[in-house]
Structure formats: C-alpha cells, structure tokens
Design brief:
With 299 residues, the protein is mainly β. The protein folds into 3 domains: 89 residues, no CATH class; 68 residues; 117 residues, no CATH class. The strands form 7 sheets. Strands 17, 18, 19, 22, 23 and 25 form a 6-stranded mixed β-sheet that branches. A 4-stranded mixed β-sheet has the order 5-3-9-7, with no helix packed on it. Strands 12-10-16-14 form a 4-stranded mixed β-sheet, with no helix packed on it. A hairpin with a 5-residue loop joins strand 20 and strand 21. The longest helix is centred in the N-terminal third of the chain and has 8 residues.
Length: 299
C-alpha cells in the first residue's frame, strides 16, 4: 500500500478502479543502476556506471521515451506498460595506446591513425603478427603498419616465431638439396593425399619431396596434412592488390608420422617451371600455385 500511481491514488484503489489486478514490469539498466520491477507510471531512478578510461557519459539509449533527461547520467523514468531496457552509453574523449615490443605508444585523439613498428626480432626469429586490440590495425601481418584509435585504451603486441631454416640451392639449379645433418626420407613413410587445397579462389597444391633431392621429380601431394595444420604450415592472404596474394610457408613436424618437413619454395602455373626459392612474400595470383617441402629426418 506504500506505492502511489497517479494523483495520490493508492495502488489498491487504482486496481479496483481499473477493474483488474495491478501488474509490474521489468526495467533492465545496462551499464548502470536501477534495474528491477515497477508498476505502471511508477517513477524509477536510474544512474549510469562510472565511465571507462578516457571516456565520459554520452546519453541513455534504448526504451528512452519516458526518461526525464537522456543526457544526464543520473535521472528518472516513468515506467510504461511494458518491459523495457535502457543502456548508458559513453563517448571516447582521449585514446591511450600501449605497444609491447614495438614503437608508437602514447596518448592520442579519437579516430587518430597511428603508425606502429615492431622491434627488430632476436637472432633466429622473425616477426609473426600483431596481437591484442587489433580490430582496427591495417595489416596484422606487417611489422610496420597503422592502427585507428577508437577506444579509450588499446593494447597491441608484436609477436615473433622461429625463423624458417633456409637451405641453399644446389649449384646447378634452383632445386633444394638436403642440408648438412639431414637425411631425405623415402616415400614409404610419407603423408600422401589432398592434391588440391580449396578455399583460396584458385588452385593451391602442397607437395613434398621423397628420396629424390636433386631435382623436381619425386614429389607427392600433402594437401590434407598442410590444410589440417593451417597457418602452422602455410598461410595465404590477400596481397596489396586484387591481383596478388601474400604467403608464408613454415617448417613443421607431421603429427601423423613424425616426419619433419622443411619449407623450400614454390612454382607458378606449371610444376615444370623453375622453383622460386622463397618461403614468404607476395606473388601474382595464378591459376595454380604449388608449394614444396623437403621431407627429412632430424639427425
């Protein structure tokens, strides 16, 4: 009996006058206080939470038709004849950027675009990618790139991986030979299968060498294995233009057989074309790209 609805009319009297039992509705306050059950026309006080770092209260959004002042962080609203939800929203007034293992950290204005640069990798490592708050990073795969600041606080970190082992090509041609301390593996222990890897918009084929190491002959398909390993073996992304793609090959150990695969390079269009001795870079989009690994034993 302690609640009043209109013009001093008690709840019980209002129920009798309306000819029905009074019911309450739910008010949900997101990012603030005041959630609960209220009766029709009852006044509820709502209060916004403290703003996040480098932000300030902006306005109330949602079912705001009966809010006294949507621009005030603490205000009142009259409960309608329905369940309602209101949310406190905030606007960014300044941006702090922390950059780990790189440069570019500082305080900036909202929507400002900042250049970030990864530190030089340690011996035996190469840059892998940017991690953290990377939704607005232009290209996480590049050690120098940009980030658009849209949050009060953002944190990005440069990460590194072990550098791929580079095997020098033979003197006679551009095909790989076994490095010192390694032995080529014959085909009876190979991970065979998966001629064409789909999902790239063009044919991508992954091949490995069996016991023949002085020429392009003696390769077999390992597309299923490379596909299952994903970026741990091969990553392909859009290049600087629609006509190019970026790729990165990695050495890996087969979880199926324990064989070790060393990244070698690629051929374009036809397998008879010269082997390009590169394990990462940007290449023109072709009908078919073939990527080659050398199958070896770790001695």
């Amino acid at each position: 009996m302690g609640r009043f609805l209109v013009a001093g009319l008690p709840l019980l009297a209002w129920s009798l006058f309306a000819g029905c039992e009074a019911t309450s509705h739910s008010l949900q306050v997101v990012n603030g206080e005041g959630s609960g059950s209220y009766y029709l026309t009852e006044t509820a006080t709502i209060k916004a939470d403290e703003p996040p770092f480098n932000c300030e209260f902006d306005r109330w959004v949602g079912d705001v038709e009966t809010i006294a002042d949507v621009t005030e962080p603490e205000t009142t609203m009259v409960m309608p004849n329905a369940d309602v939800t209101v949310s406190a929203s905030y606007k960014v007034v300044a941006c702090r950027l922390d950059v780990f293992h790189g440069t570019g950290a500082g305080d900036y204005q909202p929507q400002e675009t900042v250049t970030i640069r990864a530190d030089s990798p340690a011996a035996g490592q190469v840059f892998a990618s940017w991690t953290g708050d990377v939704a607005t990073v232009a290209d996480i795969t590049q050690p120098e790139t940009t980030i658009e600041l849209t949050r009060g606080y953002s944190r990005v970190e440069a990460t590194y991986v072990g550098a791929p082992v580079v095997v020098p090509p033979d003197d006679d041609d551009d095909t790989p030979g076994p490095p010192t301390g390694y032995t080529a593996i014959p085909g009876d222990r190979r991970d065979k299968g998966g001629e064409i890897m789909s999902g790239f918009g063009f044919d991508v084929r992954a091949l490995a060498n069996e016991d023949k190491v002085d020429g392009l002959g003696g390769y077999y398909f390992i597309g299923d294995l490379v596909w299952d390993l994903g970026s741990d073996a091969l990553s392909i992304t859009q290049g600087a233009s629609s006509g190019t793609v970026r790729f990165q090959m990695k050495d890996f150990k087969s979880p199926r057989t324990g064989l070790y695969y060393m990244a070698c390079g690629y051929t374009e269009v036809r397998s008879s074309n010269p082997l390009v001795w590169k394990t990462s870079g940007e290449v023109a989009r072709r009908d078919t790209l073939r990527f080659y690994w050398l199958t070896i034993d770790h001695n």
